[in-house]
Structure formats: C-alpha cells, structure tokens
Amino acid sequence: MTPLVAAAHELKAPLALVRQLALRLGDESLSASERQRLLRQTVLTSERALRLTSDLTKAARLDSALFQLEPINPDQLCRDVVSELQPLFEAYGRSVAVKGRRHPLLLVAHRDLLRRILLSFSDNALHYSQPGTAVHLQIQAFKKSGMVRVGVRDFGPALSSDMWRTLQDKLNIAPQKIHARPESSGLGLYIASQFATAMNGRIGAVRHKDGATFYVELQASNQLSFL
Amino acid sequence: MTKILLVEDDAWLAELEASVLVGAGFDVQLAPHAPAAIELVDSFKPEVIVLDVLLAGSTAFALLNELQSYSDTGIVPVVLCTNIADQFDVVKLKEYGVRRVVDKTTMHPDDLVAAVKSVL
Questions:
Q1: pLDDT band at B117, cuts 50/70/90?
Q2: CA triple B66-B67-B71, angle to 5 deg
Q3: Which residues of B2-24 are buried (b: 16+ CB within 10 A; e: fewer)?
Q4: Residue A86 and which of A58, A77, A138, B68 are 20 to 30 A apart at CA?
C-alpha cells in the first residue's frame, strides 16, 4: 500500500464520523445542549483528522528538513500532551494522565517530533481503551543502554497472538495492505517510526493482559548528570 | 420490538447509529468489541447484527467465524457497516451470514434503517 492510499484509508474514519455528526445536526428537533455536544464532537473529530494530515506533511519533509535535537524534559512534554488531549479524552469518557517519575531526567529529541509521536500513540490508545479507564504516559530510564523510554499505556481488550504478530510487523515497515492488516493501515505507527529514526531512536510495543504500551526510546541527555 | 445488536468501536458513531435505530422502533444493544458482542449474542439474542469491520483488538470476520460455528447464532442476519465497503462482495460474504453491506462514508441514517428492515 502506498502512503497515499494508507493516508486515504486512515482519514476515512474521522471524515465519515464528521459527516454523520453533520447529518445529525440537521435534525431540527435537537435540544440546544445536544446540538452543542454534537458540535463539540465535530470539532474534536476534525482536529484528530488534521493532526494526521499535519504528521503526514511533516513525515514527507523529514529528508530535507534539518531537525535540531536538544535536551528535552519528557515529563514536562508529557504534561503538555496530556493538557492538549484532555478535552478529547473527556468527551469520550476516558482520562489521560502522566505517571510521573520521581527523579527528573532529560532526553535528546526534537520537541515537535516527540510531541507528535506521543499524540499519535495517545490517539491510538483512546481508540483501544475501555470507557472509564485512564491512559497513562510513562517515562522510564535504562542506565545500561543510556536510553529513555516514553510510553503510552492503554487498558483495553487484550490483543490476540495473531494481531500481536501483525503489530510487530507494523512497527518497522511501510504501511501494508488493508487485507493483511485489517484493523488499520499501520500508517500512524509508520510515521511515528520515521520520526523516531530522525531522532536516532526507535519505537516499540509491549503487550499486556489488559491492553498495550506503545513507546519511543531515545538517548538520554548527558546533561542528566547535572540534574 | 425487533432486537438489534450494534457492534461498533467508535463510541460517538455507535451513539449516532443507535439513536437512528431506536428512533425507527428497534430495541438496540451496543457492543464496543468482539468479546462484548459474543456475550450479548448469548444474553440479548439479537434478531439482526449490525457490524463494523475494523474493530478494536479484532475484526468482524473473527467474530463472524465464531458466530457461524454455532447453529443458533449462525442464522442471525448480519448487516456489515463499514468504511471499506468497496472491498467486499456481499455474495461472497453470505457464508458468513452477511446479507447487506452499508458504506459508512456515503450512508444516510435512513439507509441503515432500510438495510436492517431488508434482512428481517
């Protein structure tokens, strides 16, 4: 599947939802509060679609762009991402929070690319988590490898072994045929992988009995020792 | 009142589709994923299943295979409601119990009601 086809596929779902919301808004018998709720859902769904188009544009320009890597405080960035996503999660009856780390640390990244990866993982977690559950943004440091892992943990239906194998394929390769990977084109993971590579990092996933964690691993900053 | 099981993992779309079906006089139960759908097939005993194809954690076809393996659930007609309707041939899907395919990207709410009525 070409990235263009994958993008079209990924955009279908939010656009179809926006259309259905608009059709519903045409119902003159709706109460004012119901109309406001539907309008809010329309705005939030449009913003999700726009985030994907923005990521695609960024991914297409990765080769030519010069990305200045700098020391980033992942805890602060996670808190910014949570603030940005809170309205969307609340509208879906879910919550999102940072599981803080006791000792502050820094990693080497491009702030906007890392933010986009976390937004993409969180959006995915929103889709797969159960109503009433919380999605957690977590930070872990690995002393031996000198890497910092920033993960997004969801609590939802366990992935089957088949789907897990499919997911593992998706983590490192281009978007695949919908028939081979029925639940999505893998475009979001592909873009996240491209962004991580541009920052000398990688993405991965951990399967849990009650959900999954998608993560990005990046080099810890040497400035860590000064904190 | 005809019982409809609506299997849709997008909560907002599920709500919209359910309100249309309830407005048309159907008794509707929602399932956000395949395991919940299987439980409801047993307890709610739907007369029609409206099914999204791309479900969280699974696909419609895993669920349809499961339903088809039992003689009492295999006869429940299914309306497939999907964003990728152009990739399916309803004739080939008949062995899975699928009687209609509705394209979410172009459907009007009335189309869903008409599709359900047509399989009863």
A1: very high
A2: 120
A3: ebbbbbbbbbbbbbbbbebbeeb
A4: A58
Rounded Cα–Cα distance for residues A72 and A109 (Å): 6
Instruction: Tell me the pairing of strands A211-219 and A202-208.
Output: antiparallel
Confidence category of residue A225, pLDDT binned at 50, 70, 90:
very low
Q: Note whether B56 contacts A156, CB cutoff 8 Å.
A: yes
The matching CATH number, chosen from 1.20.120.80, 3.40.50.2300, 3.40.190.10, 3.80.10.10, for B3-119 is 3.40.50.2300
- Centre a 10 Å sphere on the Cβ of residue A212 and count the other Cβ atoms it contains: 27
- Region for A141 from its dihedrals, namely left if φ exceeds 0, alpha if ψ lies in -120 to 50, beta otherwise: beta
* Residues 6 or more apart whose Cβ sits within 8 Å of residue A184: A10, B54
How many C-beta neighbours within 10 Å does residue A202 have? 16
Per the CB < 8 Å rule, is B55 touching A16? no
ipTM of the complex: 0.85
Most confident of A1-15, A34-48, A212-226: A34-48
Is the CB of residue A212 less than 8 Å from the CB of residue A128? yes
The pTM (predicted TM-score) of the whole model is 0.74
Confidence band for B62, pLDDT divided at 50, 70 and 90:
confident
CB count in 10 Å sphere of residue A33: 8
Q: Establish if A45 touches chain B: CB-CB under 8 angstroms.
A: yes
Interface mutation vs chain A, best among B6, B9, B10, most A CBs within 10 Å = B10
Whether B80 and B60 have beta carbons less than 8 Å apart is answered as yes
- What fold, for A68-226? Heat Shock Protein 90 (3.30.565)
Give me A227's structure tokens: 């904190």
The residue with tokens 């705005």 is A43
Q: What is the pLDDT of residue A115?
A: 95
Range A51-71 average pLDDT: 80
